[in-house]
Automatic annotation (TrEMBL):
Cellular component GO terms held in the UniProt record: plasma membrane
InterPro entries in the record: LeuE-type
GO BP annotations, alphabetical order: cysteine export across plasma membrane
Protein source organism: Mesorhizobium jarvisii
Bilayer topology term: Multi-pass membrane protein
UniProt cross-references to Pfam families, sorted A to Z: LysE
One annotated GO molecular function: amino acid transmembrane transporter activity
Keywords: Cell membrane, Membrane, Transmembrane, Transmembrane helix
Protein name: LysE family translocator
Subcellular locations according to the entry: Cell membrane
Amino acid sequence: MSLDAFLALLVYALVTSITPGPNNLMLLASGVNFGIARTVPHMLGISMGFLVLLLAVGLGLGAVLTAFPVLHIGLKIAGGAYLLYLAWKIAMSRSLAGKGETKARPMRFIDAAAFQWVNPKAWVMAITAMAVYANAEHPFLSVLLISIAFTIVNLPSVSIWAGFGTALRGFLSDPVRLKWFNIAMGVLLAATLWPMLK
């Protein structure tokens, strides 16, 4: 992969990682409701889960889904159902979690990593990146470079959303504002399913 191609890949990775989608909306809500420190496992889970997804797609899983469309449809249905469940949980949250509170909890590392496998935006990003930037002459090396590019930009990108949510905690400490913020986040998260339904 040439330097120009790698720089173009980095731009693609940055734009797709930092724009709104299920992960970033959940991180914004988590930053508001739990603060940055308790959201770190969620951020790391997204980055590592997406890295594993990228490697799997690049090493052949994308071709399997193309060959067996029923698997792709099943993945869409499972992802959509889980996304709606998460949207509901966010929309119904009514109080900021304090340090000693254990009833409500942010998404765990393993949950966030596993979510990438049913996240429609993550699949589109991974399949598009591999289709556009993978090199047939050096397939393993190009898959590795694509994965490195996303790893470089993904964690800083998702951290911005969690940090922005944390910055809003003071403003949203008012229960009425928090209620409407969480409802709006739940609705927006559910709305991210729209492109998948087309």
